[in-house]
Amino acid sequence: MLCATSCGSDAARKLETASRLVGERPDSAYLMLRNIDYYDLGTDSLRAKYVYTRAIANVRVGRSLITDTLLNDAASYYISVGDTAKWIVSMQLLSGYDLFRGNTEEAIDRLETIKSTTINPGLLWDTYIHLLDASIRGQYYPEAYGYADWLLRHTDRPEQILKFSTAKAATQYWQGNHKRAVEIMDSVIGTGIVEKVDEGVAKEFYCEYAEFLDGNGQSPEAIAVLNRIYPEGVQGDDADKIYRKLSMAQYHANSGHPELAKALLDGINLDGTQSYFEMYSAIAMLRAAVDYKLTGKFPTDLMHKVAKNMDNNHRLSQFNQQTAMESVIELSDDNYRLVMQRQRLWLLISGILLLSVVSGVVVYILLSRRKRRMVEAEERAETLEMMVKEYREAKEADGVSDTDKLKATLLRHIGIFKAFAGTPNQQSREALKRISNIGNKDSQSDSLVDWPDFFSLVDNLYDGFYTKLLADYPDTFNPKELQIIVLLKADFSTKEISVLTEQSSATIYTRKSVIRKKVGAPENGDIIAEIDKKIQTV
Q: Which site in 231, 338, 409, 434 is 20 to 30 Å from 286, CA atoms measured?
């Protein structure tokens, strides 16, 4: 435990330092983050911070986000704690992860989601930058045009105006609208804003402009643009200079001057461009086209070299991708083993806690049941004792007629039946059986109610109701219906009747409907009132 605590504290300190360095010194932050074990970070906040910071470091040092498989966990954590800013950045990084995996549409959908909820202007701007990049990568050019237009309308910086105007023109060019692309660039040049930026930015803009002119069939104008910004020709062999030479050769070839294009191409060391495969293949294709134009023969040896280089690049790409995936798999396996170890530990602890809780619940239930049985037994004893006491008091009372004393006793008897019927448990049923069998020592019954005695009780209480019922409705009701009628007369509820007659409530409702029809009572009418009316009339 001490080791775990100290390791966790050390990892947290390293993470805090890396998060401070990632903005200005991403290389140092990246190296520091590699020495932090994700599972040494003991809280969700530290783990989310680690994933978030590592992804930023990967972007800043130009590494792929393919290993950042936990970014979604970081985004989920930040939205759950209400840290909207970090959630938005995490979602932006996640879109980059989607792009690296080839899920361009998913990346754009994710960015659209955060765009609609982002209020902070800076974060909204960054989201549109990501949307522009993702849509261009995915060749969603109409959408890219819209994003570039939004960015253009929300900036007044000359460099950004040139950048996003070029992006708008490029989306038109890539859709085949070469004329429209040139028109956009001409309109920007007409504002004079190109003169307000650094020379390097201006050259980049005019190189793109020349590309669009050539695509629109204005190759001589494209050559003029490049000659104007490179009056002494393009010097040097770095990638940028080689690309400019290649563009100039292309424009000369398209202008009908293949010999000038060949001279420029011969000045380029083709083998030195193999690491830049796009440039290498473009030079080789243009050289093949120029040679064919000049000689009428196709350079098969050059095509063989290009094909071989393509194969080597494909193998290298596969190797790099496989290496990256193996790293991801190894990391996932290590994480899985750590997770399983922790899960087993938690399962053991949880099992012990669960066993303790279950044992406690069982003991509590047993004690509660025992206590409830004792309380119910005491209540039954008190009820019976009170019944005897009240009966004696009524018997000894002066000035009370015997009839009133009898009715009082019978009503208490009814009350006891209602009390036990209102709590339909096993103890109540046993009590009702014992009450019904009082005085019947020779023939004990399993019925909850001694119905002959109960009918007599109702007769005594309600002016011979039961006897009159039989006389006025001879052979009309079956035994169960008679039981229900006398219980209704004694003001028992459907639930209490269900308990005493040992039938379901649904059956009681059905039998009541049958009784209602037999006595001619309305559908929702009072059965007892209808019977009383008939008895009194007779």
A: 231
